[in-house]
Design goal:
By secondary structure, the chain is an alpha+beta fold. It has three domains: about 180 residues, no CATH class; about 180 residues, no CATH class; about 140 residues, no CATH class. About 25% of the residues lie in helices and about 20% in strands. The chain has 17 helices and 24 strands. An eight-stranded mixed β-sheet has the order 6-5-8-7-9-12-13-14, with helices on both faces. InterPro entries: HET. This is Heterokaryon incompatibility.
Length: about 600
């Protein structure tokens, strides 16, 4: 056995077996199995892989990855993939255990496979290889059903998962976390579409961004157009050419907005009419991007809101719904931890991370980078509370990460590493929909839910929409705990199209009894200034109620009790018992009856929560 060239999956270095690896610091699996894909060490490893020119080893020749990527995928949905995995499928190949599987630094395919493999938890983890459609890299974490001939014409990509992995994620989601490998689109010979594309590592691909925007303008119609509301007349913009803070023009104008993390950058206050001078690097780069894309106006909170004027700040926060709905494009700085970081591709010292590239029998295969969904969960931008509403409210989003560019509108998602030029999903238009009135609903059925592309105008699903957004938001952090509802206010304003009576402390008045049934997923920390029954009063992941009939939750009986704590005991002071009531139409509705009761429980065994 050639130990000198054998790669250890624990530290990704050569010369020893994983069982003998002494570098505990690089064993990241127990903390984050997918952290490898964002590791600086991986940059060096992929750069080495791209330079590998040796012959392919016997094991990798026998694997025949080109044939694996040509074979039909035996499932048409994420549920079918999980079912076949659980039952045992010939389409899922077990390479063996981490401790015994050989990967050689002299083989370019071995190097590519190591770059695709998450960090293992243990030496007896098994390395599983499988293929899935490239489209599922864009359809969202749960994919979509590929149940028609045009949908099944997509190219396939090679995925690697480790087992066992009892982490609460389905096998499908685990398989698509991290990187993937597919054939270059211009080398496909069997009629498949959505193959790979080489990423511009040194330069920002502004022409590709223009193409995405132009296609969206031409194909998607009103669904992706900005919404001009009266509140926009109260906002300020930066006129990019003169670099001046101005009032919103009297007639509707096209402007780009920025979503980013401010971090610890020093704050400067700007007033109406001020010349902005030199700005923090992330803002400068985003404004340059907007100008190159043809925008004359730009909005960013730190400049367009007077930071020392509390009255103006409160007024502008109330306009957040309108600001992001009215933006023709929102630019997202996914990888920047603060406003001084800058964006990749705009400066000589900031490039995109290298892309896996390997030649197999004269055909080029490239890496697809982490998905947008994974990047939002893992990157700095996705941890900030304020930024969630900025994505949910924006019609057209350009996400800029250290790995690649992503674009998501109300209809479809794109990424730089996949060539969508011949893709069916990227060419659908409203006239293809059997019922144009429900165009966006039909699009969701065809293209999946994407990442943060969510319909917020379906009243029958209003409780589901509210709950999903609260759960997504609850995982994020904020500098000021008192902002727990303010940073979510834009989403609540948007949801008021379905909840006409509005919200009370973040709970929908029309589904109030259900809203009270939230629960934390781990011991929470108290946020002062909010009533204890409000989810915003607690810092923790929040699970919201899931009624049996989520489209009509009031058809389900709900028991509603109010408890008070005194002297170490809980006392029930209000009890609403729900029973089914037959209406004149024969439909079941909820009837609440109340009476005073006293039931005492000892809570001495529970720790007080700070």
């Amino acid at each position: 056995m050639d130990f000198a060239s054998r790669i250890c999956l624990k530290c990704r270095k050569t010369g020893h077996l994983p069982a003998n690896c002494a570098n505990e610091r690089d064993w990241q699996g127990a903390r984050d199995p997918f952290g490898w894909f964002f590791s600086p060490h991986r940059i060096d490893f992929v750069n080495s892989q791209r330079l590998a020119t040796s012959s392919i080893c016997e094991r990798c020749q026998a694997l025949d990855i080109p044939q694996m990527l040509r074979n039909p995928v035996p499932w048409s949905s994420s549920q079918e993939m999980v079912r076949q995995y659980e039952q045992g499928s010939d389409s899922i190949h077990d390479l063996g255990e981490v401790s015994t599987t050989e990967f050689l630094a002299t083989c370019p395919v071995c190097m590519a496979l190591v770059a695709l493999t998450p960090s293992p938890d243990a030496l007896n983890d098994h390395i599983l290889l499988l293929c899935d459609y490239t489209w599922n890299r864009l359809a969202g974490e749960n994919g979509t059903k590929l149940d028609s001939p045009e949908k099944r014409q997509y190219a396939k990509c090679l995925l690697i998962a480790l087992e066992p992995r009892p982490r609460g994620l389905s096998f499908y989601i685990r398989s698509h976390r991290g990187d993937a490998l597919t054939i270059l689109d211009n080398q496909i010979t069997n009629g498949e579409t959505l193959g790979g594309r080489k990423i511009q590592i040194q330069d920002f691909n502004i022409n590709l961004c223009k193409h995405w925007l132009d296609n969206c303008d031409k194909a998607h119609g009103i669904a992706c157009e900005p919404e001009f509301t009266p509140e926009l007349s109260r906002i300020r913009l930066i006129e990019i050419e003169s670099r001046t803070v101005i009032t919103y023009p009297s007639s509707p104008c096209r402007y780009a907005a920025l979503s980013y993390r401010w971090g610890g950058t020093k704050q400067t206050n700007f007033q109406l009419g001020d010349s902005i001078g030199t700005l923090p690097t992330t803002i400068e780069d985003a404004m340059t991007c907007a100008q190159k894309l043809g925008f004359a106006y730009f909005w960013v909170d730190s400049i367009c809101i007077e930071q020392t004027n509390e009255t103006h700040k409160a007024e502008q926060i109330d306009c957040m719904w309108s600001i992001y709905r009215g933006s023709s494009l929102t630019i997202f700085a996914l990888s920047a931890p603060n406003a001084d970081t800058g964006l990749p591709g705009f400066r000589s010292d900031q490039s995109f991370q290298p892309q896996i590239e390997v030649d197999i029998n004269g055909t080029t295969y490239v890496g697809l980078m982490p998905t947008l969904s994974q990047y939002i969960w893992s990157g700095p931008w996705g941890s900030r509370a304020w930024t969630l509403q900025e994505a949910l409210l924006s019609h057209r989003c350009l996400y800029i990460s250290d790995h690649q560019l992503y674009y998501e509108c109300e209809v479809v998602q794109n990424c730089e590493s996949l060539d969508e030029s011949r893709s069916w999903a990227h060419s659908i238009t409203p006239d293809m929909c059997p019922d144009p009135v429900h165009w966006l609903t039909w699009v969701m059925e065809q293209n999946g839910f994407g990442c943060l592309r969510n319909l917020l105008d379906t009243p029958t699903d209003r409780l589901l929409h509210w709950g999903q957004k609260v759960t997504l938001y609850s995982y994020r952090d904020m500098t000021e705990p008192s902002d727990a509802l303010r940073a979510f206010d834009g989403v609540l304003q948007r949801l008021q199209t379905m909840y006409q009576k509005g919200f009370f402390w973040g709970l929908p008045l029309e589904d109030f009894q259900w809203g009270l049934l939230w629960q934390s997923m781990w011991p929470p920390r108290r946020r002062q200034g909010f009533p204890t029954w409000c989810w915003a009063a607690w810092q923790a992941g929040i699970l919201t109620p899931w009624p049996a009939d989520k489209k009509n939750p009031h058809r389900s009986p709900v028991s509603f009790r109010v408890w008070t704590s005194k002297g170490g005991s809980l006392t029930c002071i209000f009890d609403a018992k729900a029973t089914y009531n037959e209406t004149d139409q024969g439909a079941k509705d909820t009837l609440l009856t109340t009476k005073q009761v006293e039931q005492v429980f000892n809570i001495a065994r529970f720790q007080d929560v700070d």
